[in-house]
From TrEMBL:
Residue ranges occupied by any Thiamine phosphate synthase/TenI domain in the UniProt entry: 10-192
The name this protein goes by in its record: Thiamine-phosphate synthase
Annotated 2-[(2R,5Z)-2-carboxy-4-methylthiazol-5(2H)-ylidene]ethyl phosphate binding sites: 137-139, 169, 189-190
NCBIfam families xref list: thiE
The organism of origin for this protein: Halobacillus amylolyticus
Pfam families registered for this protein in UniProt: TMP-TENI (PF02581)
Amino acid sequence: MNLQERLRKYLIMGSQNCQRDSVAILEEAIAGGITAFQFREKGPNALEGEEKLELGLKLRQLCRKHHVLFIVNDDSVLVEPLEADGIHVGQDDMDVEDLRSTFPNKIIGLSVSSEAEVRNSAIDVVDYLGAGPVFGTSTKVDAKAPVGVEWITSVKAMFPDMPLVGIGGITAQNSRSVLVAGADGVSVISAVTHADDVRSVVEQL
Ligand SMILES: Cc1ncc(COP(=O)(O)OP(=O)(O)O)c(N)n1
Ligand SMILES: Cc1nc(C(=O)O)sc1CCOP(=O)(O)O
Ligand SMILES: [Mg+2]
């Protein structure tokens, strides 16, 4: 499987996104067919320090067992202890050129929300792009204004060979429009973590 295929159904989650056990939710999402997972323990009620590491190790182990890509959000210090496949950063996080020097062989994902961000980013050193928020989201308190599926089409036109995932407000009902617009995959938090039937929602994505 190439990276495009491995990013097809990309669950992003931390314990703060879960109203029940996050390990159980990841197990159900894996049964439904996620291909990638991002450990994003961040924001109000997120775990820190040793507790964050402990949860990360459990989620990492599950992903390894089921051959699901395991990416860490923001926290470069956790990449080695969790033996992550890679790290995802945004425009205000660690510089991607520094990250590439630190992790020559890890997958690096970068968020892009506008043409200005694209112009100011070292796209050539990253492995995939996350574009959004495609739709409105209440999961991320500091999310930017929705960019629509048009932004997916624009990014794909600029970088046809770069793996691209959409993010922000994506659900089983609208995920097809994101893929039709040109994304290789959809990344989802609340539509999966808050679902009554996690497995079924992942199957429908
Ligand atoms: C796949 C993917 N795309 C975008 C983001 C957002 O990253 P960022 O802008 O750094 O925001 P935080 O997630 O750190 O709050 C992402 N995490 N994953
Ligand atoms: C973490 C994150 N990043 C975004 C971006 O636009 O960069 S939107 C977002 C939250 C996505 O959560 P949900 O699937 O619940 O809308
Ligand atoms: Mg970030």
